[in-house]
Amino acid sequence: MFVDRAEITIKSGKGGNGSVSFRREPFVPEGGPDGGDGGKGGDVIFVADNNMRTLMDFRYSKKYEAESGQDGMKKKCFGKGGSNLVIKVPPGTVVIDKSTGLIMKDLVDPGDSFVAAKGGKGGKGNVNFKSSIRQAPNFAEAGGAAKERTVILELKLIADVGLVGFPNVGKSTLLSVCTSAQPKIANYHFTTINPNLGVVELYDESFAIADIAGIIEGAHEGAGLGHAFLKHIERTKVLIHVVDVAGSEGRDPIEDFEKINMELELYSKKLSRKPQIVAANKIDLIDESDPIFVNFKKHVEAKGYQCFPISAPLGAGVKDLLSAALAELKNVEANPAEDETPGYFDFDKDDNDPDYKKLYASREGDIYVLSGKQLKKIFDSTNFTDIGSLRYLYKHIEKNGGIDQLKELGLKEGDTIRIENYEFEYIEEY
């Protein structure tokens, strides 16, 4: 089964906690601190693997989590870092952050990779908090939190040329004739429910060509197989627009041509600007002198497109069509168009959270509440039986304006302050 979209949750490893430990030596009743740092949590890494063809592996497995870092140990021993989690995807996969809708990375070529979620930093052991006035710190730092996010994986076929057109106009037949691909072919709509890929070999040169499922009116809004397959055209450099010029199903070829181009434009302006060659298929059912074909060719060429009469089953005119596609490819590669720059996920903002050190004060009835990301980390590391550890927590709150914010809300001596799930009585420091 060809699966080209998946939604999964990824989570990096939590950083290991720093250790609280003191040297134990003979005849040294109170040795100094020797608690080591915690290990870094593992990263979640996506890699484009050429051995994968679909996103089938993600259909049933939805959650991926890297290993957490090991806690620090005594004798200044650092905790072991958590193992990275490598997630393999097919080349051509776009990784999108679900919450923002922004692209995190477009993994086009085999071997392309990126870190989607960094592991938490290891917490510092108590040896790091020793100072001239704090000889025996009885506290350590908690490990950094893991990063968890939901991502959308979208696979877009990597092909040089894309075949587009209404259902049952002969795209699959054309693909089978000009390549070794063997798509399912029959005389009914939506025979092609999966995109097919083949390689054309012509004049000692080659290029990849993809048969995209038949497009219908409203495809840009998701009608039929709309969104599921229009995305596969986005990477192609040249389009071959296949039209049933004989009108064998009672449709007007000019009208079909215009409707498909309208769907492409409504889906993406970029698609409508791609070089396009028109294949007037089923010419064996009418004569090239037939007014239907003559008028169609005149209409298409007036729009600035090349038009080639072909009969895909018989192979008539196919070589000329492919030669024109090859020439157009060379022209595109020699003069690449400027792509629209999509919105990309800001990893710098993610890694250097400007909100990390901020404290937020609020009031719930008679209780004053303090919260913040760094505050939570320090609070989790606080040893409430140690004066030095409590003072470290208080100094952090005071330094970052937490007390001033609470006083603006009416805080006075004797009032209750809540941090996380703990409540404290506020006492003025004189």
Q: How would you describe this protein?
A:
This protein is of the alpha/beta class and 430 residues long. The chain has three domains: 1-155, Spo0b-associated Gtp-binding Protein, Chain: A, CATH 2.70.210; 167-334, P-loop containing nucleotide triphosphate hydrolases (Rossmann fold, 3-Layer(aba) Sandwich), CATH 3.40.50.300; 355-425, GTP-binding protein OBG, C-terminal domain (GMP Synthetase, Chain A, domain 3). It has ten helices and 18 strands. It has helices spanning 171-178, 226-230, 253-267, 269-272, 291-302, 318-334, 347-351, 373-381, 387-399, 402-408; strands spanning 5-11, 44-48, 63-65, 85-89, 93-97, 103-107, 113-117, 148-155, 161-164, 196-202, 205-211, 238-244, 276-281, 306-309, 360-364, 367-371, 416-419, 422-425. The radius of gyration is 32 Å and the shape is elongated. It starts with a strand and ends in a 5-residue tail after the last strand.
Give the helices and strands, then pairings.
Blueprint: E1 5-11, E2 44-48, E3 63-65, E4 85-89, E5 93-97, E6 103-107, E7 113-117, E8 148-155, E9 161-164, H1 171-178, E10 196-202, E11 205-211, H2 226-230, E12 238-244, H3 253-267, H4 269-272, E13 276-281, H5 291-302, E14 306-309, H6 318-334, H7 347-351, E15 360-364, E16 367-371, H8 373-381, H9 387-399, H10 402-408, E17 416-419, E18 422-425
Parallel strand pairs: 1-3, 2-4, 9-11, 9-12, 12-13, 13-14, 16-17
Antiparallel strand pairs: 1-8, 2-7, 5-6, 5-8, 10-11, 15-16, 17-18
